[in-house]
């Protein structure tokens, strides 16, 4: 759920050369890890005709360590920050939730994985995550717009470097540039484990 328990998520991404750089930037800015590094597996569901995607909506089933979360996101309001409605519920059984979604006619259309570490700074209301993905390393800042701008400036980023695309959007942009046809954003064999789509 959006930071602070609200139903609207406001966030940006910031690019990093590597995870070590991100950890140093956050430490120097007074942030400390509030949740350890965890491997996430995410399956995006849609109808056969991609009705949700056409409307700018998202239905996602995520497992992160022992935690499973079902998320619905509404269309994004684009601007300097990415803002959209977000509704989440924690699940006790991801496999059963998947069966329900399949029975309702939803199909897995995109699968992606990443390693995420959460950071907070005492007395500051927002959340920063360090995301290690198969297409690069990013900081994700989630909170009120003024807070996002303040933290980004503290970390040495100008607003021109803000990324408001989702990981799915970034992956599809990369696929278009390279001519790829994968529906999985997965780590390669020989590095981190490469898991099958929709698992």
Compact summary:
The chain has 199 residues and is of the alpha+beta class. It has helices at residues 19-28, 51-54, 94-103, 145-154, 167-178, and strands at residues 8-16, 32-46, 58-64, 67-73, 77-78, 82-91, 107-120, 127-133, 136-142, 184-185. The protein has 5 helices and 10 strands.
Describe the model:
It is a single chain. By secondary structure, the chain is an alpha+beta fold. It has a single domain (about 10-185), classed as Hypothetical Protein Pfu-838710-001, CATH 2.40.320. The chain contains five helices and ten strands. It has helices spanning about 20-30, 50-55, 95-105, 145-155, 165-180; strands spanning about 10-15, 30-45, 60-65, 65-75, 75-80, 80-90, 105-120, 125-135, 135-140, 185. An eight-stranded antiparallel beta barrel has the order 1-6-4-3-2-7-8-9. Strand 8 (about 125-135) and strand 9 form a beta hairpin.
Relevant terms:
alpha+beta, 8-stranded antiparallel β-barrel, Hypothetical Protein Pfu-838710-001, 199 residues
Secondary structure layout:
Elements: E1 8-16, H1 19-28, E2 32-46, H2 51-54, E3 58-64, E4 67-73, E5 77-78, E6 82-91, H3 94-103, E7 107-120, E8 127-133, E9 136-142, H4 145-154, H5 167-178, E10 184-185
Parallel strand pairs: 7-10
Antiparallel strand pairs: 1-6, 1-9, 2-3, 2-7, 3-4, 4-6, 5-6, 7-8, 8-9
């Amino acid at each position: 759920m959006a930071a602070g328990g609200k139903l609207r998520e406001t966030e940006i991404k910031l690019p990093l050369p590597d995870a070590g750089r991100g950890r140093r930037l956050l430490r120097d800015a007074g942030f400390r890890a509030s949740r350890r590094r965890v491997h996430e597996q995410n399956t995006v569901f849609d109808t056969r005709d991609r009705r949700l995607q056409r409307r700018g909506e998202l239905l996602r089933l995520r497992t992160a360590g022992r935690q499973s979360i079902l998320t619905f996101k509404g269309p994004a309001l684009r601007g300097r920050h990415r803002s959209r409605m977000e509704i989440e519920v924690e699940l006790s059984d991801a496999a059963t939730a998947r069966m329900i979604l399949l029975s309702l006619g939803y199909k897995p259309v995109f699968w992606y994985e990443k390693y995420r570490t959460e950071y907070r700074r005492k007395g500051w209301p927002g959340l920063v995550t360090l995301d290690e993905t198969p297409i690069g390393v990013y900081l994700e800042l989630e909170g009120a717009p003024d807070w996002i701008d303040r933290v980004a400036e503290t970390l040495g980023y100008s607003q021109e470097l803000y990324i408001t695309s989702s990981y799915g959007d970034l992956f599809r942009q990369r696929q278009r540039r390279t001519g790829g046809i994968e529906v999985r954003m997965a780590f390669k064999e020989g590095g981190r484990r490469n898991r099958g789509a929709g698992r």
